[in-house]
Amino acid sequence: AVGTADAATVAGWRSAYLEALKAARPDGGLNGGLVTDKRPDNFLHIGLIKTLFPDAKILHTVRDPIDTALSNWFLHLDRSMAYAAAGADLLFFEASETNEELRDFCAISPKPAMVNMVPGGKTPMLPPAALAALGARVALYNPTLFAAIPAMQHALAALRDGDPLAPPVLAEFAEVCQLTGAAEYQRLAEHYGV
Q: What is the pTM of this model?
């Protein structure tokens, strides 16, 4: 049907593709006028691609299968990507241990990336501007939880001991995990496969 389509139909197809691209990418996907559509099955559609975009440059690459597998292994395609396919509005990469891991996840995430800033956790604590520079769009900071537990314990002990003005201290990460039942939540998540 591509070979017999009139100019108006081709223009409509082209317009629909460009509109979908703009909707899928905040920058319209037109970085310097270049669009990369890296799909292995595009070779089946070269006629359509060249009809819609006669000036398009098509590159065919052949990669070593082992190199491709290794490259895919290092992508952080964790279970959050399945949530994106199911319609999630945000994706959360659990416990990234380096800024590079977080940056890589944000770069491939099809949805805005969310991070959890937990004092003593695996993810490096960063200020909002640094997280934004890595590509994170939402950050949860948890200092109130860590401050609240020992503060309550301290306040109650101070009341008991007749010294209600003594300064509070922060809880350690392991203590917060123990007091909030984190191990049980983890066991349930593993049990139910979430």
A: 0.45
